[in-house]
Amino acid sequence: MTAGDNKSSNVVWHEAQVTRAMRESRNGHRGAVLWFTGLSGAGKSTLAHAVEERLHAMGAHTFVIDGDNVRHGLCADLGFSDADRVENIRRVAELAGLFVQAGVLTLTAFISPFRADRAQARKLLGDDFIEIHCDTPLDVCEARDVKGLYKRARAGEIPAFTGISSPYEAPQHAEIVVQTATQSIEACVDQIVDWLAARHMIQQQGDS
Questions:
Q1: 112 is catalytic
Q2: pTM of the full predicted structure?
Q3: I want to staple 150 with a disulfide (CB 3.0 to 4.6 A). Which of 51, 58, 142, 175 is the partner?
Q4: Which of 81, 112, 166, 208 is catalytic?
């Protein structure tokens, strides 16, 4: 069941006395969503957690929403059909939006294979949505096969597996593109943190 099947009624939005601006002022940085997308094995989760570790060391308030983790709870009722993937991304975008209102730099690591779904997340989150494409060729991801999923997909054990039997629609206008096949994790982290600092979303050591 999706949100459109059972719309809430008799509810009124309650405006908080403590505003997002107040939270961001206390945190010392903007809230935003760093949306990591890419094939399985592209390094999304590894990179998201490495970026979070760097940002945390800089004093930022952060949280990673991981694709596998949410399917243990928030999205445990969803499978991997196209419709379920759409609903999975919708829920994650809504959740990430709440973290942003708390002034948190929120990192999401999801394959999120369809452009339309990522476009919906961008529409919901607006300027707070920062798309980061872990641009790694399929053959590299398959050679890594860190979870053994490609082997199972090739054997026909996993239906609708992205990159094999289901498409991955790469971003066309991502804010940040990292080449995780040729760049080190440290270099990718530097690239993302420098991008954020250049737009005054965070303060690097030595900034005034």
A1: yes
A2: 0.86
A3: 142
A4: 112
